[in-house]
From TrEMBL:
InterPro entries: DUF1269_membrane. The chain crosses the membrane at residues 65-92. Keywords: Membrane, Transmembrane, Transmembrane helix. This is Membrane protein. It comes from Promicromonospora soli.
Length: 161
């Protein structure tokens, strides 16, 4: 089973530390990381910084486009009022086929703010509960979308090589 997850942390460095933790969990066989991205938003900055990992080289370009679309729309498109709803709606049309709905996008946009960070991951064959236990010390919150096999295929076809 493939999952799209977003782990939100209450400080700008939490997601980077969690990403290292996720890589360690992968090396121990607890989870397979298809790809991940880190968003860090220090207090006082107008926008967050993003870092895409490209964990899977053969999928890197396609997933890079996915992360660019997702993170760019959520955090870098100047959105005010009604334009915010329109941008999130347009993004949702692109991501619904892979199990990421408008409500989840709005939640991510509302919760990842200045002074926080987030780890975005596409994983498979993992025990999210056991991986989540490793994040308790980071004061993180998990927002997860478990993707069906059809959604996984759509994700890989849409954003794959």
């Amino acid at each position: 089973m493939t999952a799209f997850t977003v782990w939100k942390f209450d400080d700008p460095g939490g997601a980077e530390a969690a990403a290292a933790n996720l890589k360690q969990a992968a090396s121990e066989g607890l989870i397979t990381v298809v790809d991940h991205a880190v968003v860090s938003w220090p207090e006082g900055q107008a926008n967050p910084t993003t870092k895409q990992a490209h964990d899977s080289e053969w999928r890197g370009t396609g997933l890079g486009a996915f992360w660019g679309l997702l993170l760019g729309t959520l955090f870098f498109v100047p959105i005010i009022g009604a334009a915010a709803g329109a941008a999130i709606g347009a993004l949702a049309r692109h991501t619904e086929a892979v199990g990421i709905d408008r409500k989840q996008l709005e939640t991510i946009r509302e919760q990842v703010t200045a002074g926080t960070s987030a780890l975005f991951a596409v994983t498979q064959e993992g025990d999210l509960d056991r991986v989540g236990e490793r994040f308790h010390g980071f004061r993180g919150k998990l927002i997860a979308t478990n993707l069906t096999e059809a959604e996984r295929s759509t994700l890989l076809e849409t954003f794959g090589p």
